[in-house]
Amino acid sequence: METIRIKKCKQVRWPSRGSEQAAAWDLYMPEDVKVEHMALGKKVELGLKLEIPEGYYVRILPRSSTGKNTGIRLSNSEGVIDSDYRGEICALIDNLGEDITLDKGERYFQMILAKRIDAELFKTMELSTTERGEGGFGSSGK
Asked: What are phi and psi of 75, to 5 degrees?
């Protein structure tokens, strides 16, 4: 089993899993944060610093209830926290809904530990051909 070391840098609850089989840890807001309608790229501090095992990274995502009940979206779709980063983790958000306050102690975001896969990039002038080719955006059917 891998270990993520966590340090609080604000008064905040420790992350928790909603069930024994949950893939992600819920993150709690360390303070109230007001987010105006159509705010774009607002940095929301989550009050924690992580030491992630080498060969892994952490993904920051909105909880499903955040997507269902608010206009809050992550500006970059998901946050990626590398294993060598030691600063406070944050969520970069947009608010497509009404003005909202992200309430202290509530859960809006979650984190997942993921394994980094090492790969080598090989520069080439040609790629192999496939039946699909360059077709995208629904080209393979509904």
From this structure: -60, -35
Instruction: Tell me the residue type at 60.
Output: I
In the three-class reduction of DSSP (H, G, I as helix; E, B as strand; rest coil), residue 35 is classed as strand
Tokens, residue 109:
């975001």
Taking the domains of the chain in order of start, what are their residue ranges? 5-115
Quote the CA–CA distance of 34 and 44 in Å, as a whole number.
10
pLDDT in tens, 77-109: 999 999 999 999 999 999 999 999 999 999 999
Quote the tokens at residue 58: 């952490």
In a 13 Å sphere around the CA of 23, the CA atoms on its Cβ side amount to: 9
Structure tokens at 40: 């774009």
pTM for the whole structure:
0.89
- At the top level of CATH, which class does the domain 5-115 belong to? mainly beta
